[in-house]
Amino acid sequence: MFFDRKIFITAALAIGTVLALPSCTSDLAEETTPAATIVSSKIAGNSDCAQKGILIVKFDESAIPVLEEHARHAAQTRSETTRSGLESVDCILERIGVTSFKRVFPVGNDEERTREAGLHRWYVLNFSPEADLDAAAKMLADVAQVKTIQYNTLVCKAYNSKVYPLTEDEMTSSTRAFVTAPFNDPQLKWQWHYINNGDIAIHESAKVGADINVAEAWKLTAGDPRVIVAIVDGGVKYTHPDLAANMWINLAEANGLPGVDDDGNGYVDDIYGYNFCTDSAQITWNLDESHGTHVAGTVAAVNNNGLGVAGIAGGTGHNDGARLMSCQIFDGESSAGDYQTALAIKYAADMGASVLQCSYGVTAMYATDAQFRMLEPLVVEALSYFQNKSNCDAVDGGIVIYASGNEGKPMASYPAAYRSVISVTSFGADFLPAYYTNYHLGCNIAAPGGEIFSSTDNRGGVLSTICSDAEDGNGADYGYIQGTSMACPHVSGVAALGLAYALKTGKHFTREEFTNLLLTSVNDIDSYITGSKVMNGKVVDLESTYRGEMGSGAVDAYRLLMQIEGTACLTAAKGKQQQISLTQVFGGNADNLTYVEPGFESSENDLERYGAEMSAEDMQRLGVEEKPRIVNGKLQIKCNNMGCAKIKIRAIAGGDRRGTDDWIGGIPVVREVAIIVRDTDSKRWM
């Protein structure tokens, strides 16, 4: 599932009939610049698909003291602010019938940072919906101290968001092949997107390993409540029995007085987040509006609680999962615009989120980042604010993740295509690109988004939490949906898991460093993309269309944790005797190093005898029948089972034996590496 809104690239306005009243004469107009030039350079976008009766205006810094003094005076008199205090602006506000004039971002506890980012210069005007938006924008553009005018273009649903509830038969079915996992969530067996063993009960074309490889990662960490993920989406059902324990809670408001802004952040009673559609703390949901709840469940449904499904960063059932903050921008038939979306993004930053989960977007009609920045400056500035806000000790800044879009186009939709955010494409249980996914330009990484082929064949979708009238965590509270909207929270969940592990291991990264780790913690998807597939009624050649176009690869949770702890990852193909290069572990001269030390061939120590050591437990898990050894400077191993394990490898740095009292030799170097076994050719793997 994905959301869509139409925005046109051109910034020029077709100025036709203006307001009946004459425009104000401005003594602040830039006389040296033609009016047409002022309009085209100041007005972002046009009024198509924009909310009536609202404009967003950014003022020059020189105007701010007057605006703020006027606002202070209005606050003292407890009157509704409908004027700016600038005569040239107020003349226009009067003519268009402004009923409210206020700062976009309310004054809160992060006011200093807000001002440093220049976000205090944005104001929102509400006026009669009968007024001509273009004419009002043109008049305001003639004021020199007005720097930018932006329409509040609305977000709208692209198509029917069909939800397929989990059936009673599925809940009680014992036909699903056994899934090995450390948690007791009964419906984890249907979450192929976490652990895919190729069971045809999911789909006849299900592929082993078409998942995020999270089972092994869960043995190292399953989340951390210090990691907060903001769900910028429909409302999250915070009473859901499989989500409630992992909801972010604003304790100041929860323990405060109703109707009072207890924490002074500019929002009243925002206990679980905020509804930016209705400008209230009343977060809403229903079965037809399960999108935000479904996304949230993938990120951090409570694990190991004997109930429903599992979440990627949902903890171990001991109140140790990542926290979910609901930043609602869809409410029934109401949709947010740029104004409300920017509020949601900044709110998430100010209230402590370190991951921004965004399964919404715009039609891919921007051609460049420059056009996106020009036409959506408010959202761009809010995203920058989030990315520069450090809310987690593991990373400097915030991680922003978007769904690439469901138009099946060779380009991600914006904002996903914007180069500073992570864009997620979608594959199905068959490890092939989903028929709806965007790909190619602006697409960074792939994740399971599922494919539902019919109303009776829905198990290929992503299973997560949904909204029903039930409150017991049984069938109606869970369901399948498909889309890049479902792929996106898999990457957000993996990111949250990675941050949790960084906290656990005491690691710290810049935002760029963590992003690099995330985008390179992938498994190969290209080797699966062969032959053809019927997509939207047409036969599509997969290799020529999608190979190399789905991003860096398929996200792998275990691989990210290994990169975070600094353990090199080697990839092996299942069932194949192979020799794996060690250059990424021991450097470019790895093939020429000595790994088996002379004089130790008969040693009982495998590390000295073979140059490699693997525990009996790990050998059994990966189906390794002969002990791994180093041959010609490479790791020789055959794994008959898929999975992950660690191997210690010993080399001599300098010479062909280690130094002793009687022998001038080298220094033994021992490195522990992780080996990840997959069911494919490893030659293209990262």
Keywords:
single chain, 686 residues, alpha/beta, 8-stranded mixed sheet, 5-stranded mixed sheet, 19 helices, 24% helix, 20% strand, elongated
List the helices and strands and how they pair.
Blueprint: E1 3-4, H1 35-42, E2 43-44, E3 50-59, H2 64-77, H3 87-96, E4 100-103, H4 111-116, E5 122-126, H5 133-141, E6 146-153, E7 156-157, E8 164-165, H6 168-172, H7 215-218, E9 228-234, H8 251-254, E10 273-275, H9 291-300, E11 323-331, E12 334-335, H10 338-350, E13 355-358, H11 369-375, H12 377-387, E14 395-396, E15 399-403, E16 422-427, E17 445-448, E18 462-465, E19 478-481, H13 484-505, E20 509-510, H14 511-520, E21 522-523, E22 532-535, E23 538-541, H15 542-546, E24 554-555, H16 557-565, E25 569-573, E26 578-581, H17 583-586, H18 606-610, E27 612-613, H19 616-622, E28 629-631, E29 634-637, E30 643-653, E31 667-678
Parallel strand pairs: 2-6, 9-11, 9-13, 10-11, 13-15, 14-20, 15-16, 16-17, 25-31
Antiparallel strand pairs: 1-7, 3-5, 3-6, 4-5, 8-19, 11-12, 18-19, 21-24, 22-23, 26-29, 27-30, 28-29, 30-31
What's this, in brief?
With 686 residues, the chain is of the alpha/beta class. It is 24% helix and 20% strand.
Structural overview:
- There is one protein chain.
- This protein is an alpha/beta fold and 686 residues long.
- It is built from 19 helices and 31 strands.
- A hairpin with a 2-residue loop joins strand 22 (532-535) and strand 23 (538-541).
- Helix 9 (291-300) packs parallel to helix 13, helix 10 runs parallel beside helix 12 (377-387) and helix 13 packs parallel to helix 16.
- Residues 3-39 and 681-686 have low confidence and may be disordered.
